[in-house]
Amino acid sequence: MSNSSMQGKVAVITGGSRGLGRAMAVALGAEGATIALVARDNAKLEESAAEVVKAGGKASLHVADVAVEADVLRLEKELAAQYGKIHILINNAGINLRKTITEFTLEEWMGVVNTNLTSVFLMCRAFVPHMKGSGYGRIINMTSIMSHVSIPGRTAYSSTKTALLGMTRALALELAADGITVVGISPGPFGTEMNTALMNNPELNAQFLSKIPLGRWGKVEEIGALARFICSEDAGFITGTDILIDGGWTAQ
C-alpha cells in the first residue's frame, strides 16, 4: 500500500496512549489516515501523537473515559465538529485484573466489564452513524486469545473478551449492508505495558514463553501492520470474524 492509501480517512483509536493502540495509530497514520487518539492520560496521548507525526501522519488528542456515557457523547460531538465524519473505529481500551473469582469485588468486576465491553457499545453506538452511507467503514475490536482459551485468574478478562467476540459477529451482520466491516483482533502475549510485570518476572516470563511455539513475545508493530491491512480496501471481504495473532499459542 502507498502512503496515501488512507488519505482522507479519519480513525478513532481508544486506548491510544500506549502499547497496541499507539502502534496501530502509527501504522494508520503512516498510510495517510488522520488519527483521533482517545485515552485518559493526556501526557501519554502527547507521546503517541508525536510518534504518529514522526511517522508522517496527523493526530489529535482527546481526553475521555470511554466507559462513561457522558464522555463518549461529548467525544462524538467534538470529533464531528472537528472532522465531520469518522471512517475507522478501533476499540482498543481495556484493562485486566488478575485475581481469582472469590477475590473480586463487584466494583472491580464491573470496572473490567465497563472498560472492556460497555465502552465498545458506547463507542459503536456513537460512531456507527458516521460510517453509514459512504460504502466504507471499519470497526476493529481488540478481543484476545482469552476469548478463545483461558488461564487461571482471568475470569473477568476472559468473560469480557468472549462477549466482545460475540458483539463483533453480531454487529458485522447488522452493518454488512452498509459496507461496514467489523473484525476482531485477538492478540496473544505482546510486549506491552499491560504485560510488563510478567515480562520482568523471570519465572513467569519463562512460563509464558514456553507456551508460545514461536518462542517470543509479539512485537507491537505486528499488530499495527495487521490493523493497517484490515482497514485497507484489500480486506473489504473480511468481516464478522476474529484474527488470532498469537505466535501459535491457541493452535496447541
Strands, count: 7
- Write the CATH homologous superfamily: NAD(P)-binding Rossmann-like Domain
CATH topology-level fold name: Rossmann fold
How much helical structure, as a percent, in the residues?
Answer: 40-55%
As for the number of domains, it is: 1
Count of DSSP H/I helices: 8
Q: On the 0-100 scale, what is the average pLDDT?
A: 95
Give the tags:
8 helices, 7 strands, 252 residues, globular, single chain, Rossmann fold, 44% helix, alpha/beta
Helices and strands in order, then pairings?
Blueprint: E1 10-14, H1 19-30, E2 34-39, H2 42-54, E3 58-63, H3 69-83, E4 88-91, H4 106-131, E5 137-142, H5 155-175, E6 180-187, H6 196-199, H7 202-210, H8 220-230, E7 241-245
Describe the 3D structure.
The chain has 8 helices and 7 strands. The protein has 252 residues and is α/β, with parallel strands linked by helices. It has one domain: NAD(P)-binding Rossmann-like Domain (Rossmann fold), CATH 3.40.50. A 7-stranded parallel beta sheet has the order 3-2-1-4-5-6-7, with helices on both faces. Strand 4, helix 4 and strand 5 (137-142) form a beta-alpha-beta unit. The longest helix is centred in the middle third of the chain and has 26 residues, at 106-131. The radius of gyration is 17 Å and the shape is globular. The mean pLDDT is 95.
